[in-house]
Amino acid sequence: MPGNIKKEDIEHLAKLARIDLAEEEGKKLLKDAEAILGYFEELKQADTGDISPSAGWRSGATDMTNKTDKDEVNQELIQKGIESFPESEKGCLKVPGVMKNSDE
């Protein structure tokens, strides 16, 4: 795979990222990209036959589960909250308007 990336690819990516690259910067990026792709080729050669797909860091390979509680509505707390609010009407909180009618 190294060598599959071309100067035009780097120029295209720079254009998409709206980055002005000097000629030397483009050459360095091309060389770095080829090295990175080379590392991936090396990784493909690693024997992973004995490793389960779910093993590894942050992969969820654990016996832990999320514990959730049932949501319960506490009308008493709701009523206390409404009563402590500066204004309420018909069990709802009343707040100042943020939009004005064009007729006003």
CATH topology of the domain at 7-44: Histone, subunit A
The main sheet comes to: 2 strands, antiparallel
Q: Kindly state the mean pLDDT as a whole number? A: 83
Strand order of the largest sheet: 1-2
Helix content: 40-55%
What is the quaternary state of this protein? Answer: single chain
Choose one word for the global shape: elongated
Q: Radius of gyration over alpha carbons? A: 30 Å
Structural class: mainly alpha
What letter string, H or E per element, gives the SSE order?
HHHEE
CATH class of the domain at 7-44: Mainly Alpha
Q: Would you count the extended β strands for me?
A: 2
What does this structure look like?
The protein has a domain at 7-44: Histone, subunit A (Orthogonal Bundle). A hairpin with a 2-residue loop joins strand 1 and strand 2 (92-93). A two-stranded antiparallel sheet has the order 1-2. The radius of gyration is 30 Å and the shape is elongated. The chain has 104 residues and is mainly α. The chain has helices at residues 7-16, 23-44, 75-84, and strands at residues 88-89, 92-93.
Layout of strands and helices, then pairs:
Blueprint: H1 7-16, H2 23-44, H3 75-84, E1 88-89, E2 92-93
Antiparallel strand pairs: 1-2
